[in-house]
Amino acid sequence: MPRPVIGVSTYQEPARWGVWEMPSVLLPEAYPRLVRAAGGLAVMLPPDDTADAARETVAALDGVVIAGGADVEPVRYGAAPDPRTGPPARGRDSWELALIEAAVEQNVPLLGICRGMQLLNVAFGGTLHQHLDGHSGGLGVFGGHPVLPVPGTAYAAVVPEETVVPAYHHQAVDRLGAGLIASAHAPDGTVEALEMADHEGLVLAVQWHPEMGEDVRVMTALVHAARARRALPGGGPGSGRAVRLPA
């Protein structure tokens, strides 16, 4: 069977190379490297501007990864911005929320990473802590801290033991979104993994950055779920059933 095709959302930033400097869509190389190490084929998903585009994009994929990046705009979860919250990335917010909705509706396996976990929570009506300390190694430096799985969860089935993970974030999940459960915590109680309960497919998100470490198990779980979905009768791209997000 061909390797599952895993779409990864991208940053949208100015970039410079050679004699050129222009708006660009970017993805740290560590993301496709992790997808390849887990047995998948990585493709980039640059922002588009319609929900229809998100549905068509997801329908062509075996799995979706929502990558890390900028803070989610607080208006998305009904909050005023904290002075320590970064500038909004409105195009990414809209596009990635649409990708999440499309993946859940079509039952395409979904993995959120850092910002991707926060967006998953917001997509289901949850809120975020806009600032916390101690979850990075300083400006531009990844830190590390333990993560403890919640027994009986899908995450614990993939990573059953306590692990030290590479982390770089200053925001985190506050109130859980509807239908989501916490499946791992940091020692200070910060929610470190989320998953969707009572859902046919894999919907999992982690607050840390697995692409910056050596442990490929979280991404392997996504690739395995994508491969299993493709192997089902009538499986593969375009075969998902509709599951509506809460209004």
What does this protein look like?
The protein is α/β, with parallel strands linked by helices and 247 residues long. It has a single domain, classed as Rossmann fold (3-Layer(aba) Sandwich). The protein is 26% helix and 26% strand. The protein has helices at residues 30-37, 51-59, 90-106, 115-123, 154-158, 217-231; strands at residues 5-9, 11-17, 20-26, 41-45, 63-66, 110-113, 128-129, 143-149, 163-167, 172-173, 180-185, 191-196, 203-206. Strands 4-1-5-6-13-12-11-8-9 form a nine-stranded mixed beta sheet, with helices on both faces. The longest helix is centred in the middle third of the chain and has 17 residues, at 90-106. The radius of gyration is 17 Å and the shape is globular. Mean pLDDT is 92; it is low at 240-247.
- Please tally the β strands and state the result: 13
Strand ordering within the main sheet: 4-1-5-6-13-12-11-8-9
Rounded mean pLDDT is 92
Kindly report how far apart the N and C termini lie. Answer: 38 Å
CATH T-level fold name = Rossmann fold
CATH architecture: 3-Layer(aba) Sandwich
Counted by DSSP, the helix tally is 6
Number of domains: 1
Query: CATH class, anyone?
Result: Alpha Beta
Low-pLDDT stretches are 240-247
Provide the gyration radius in Å: 17 Å
Indicate the overall shape: globular
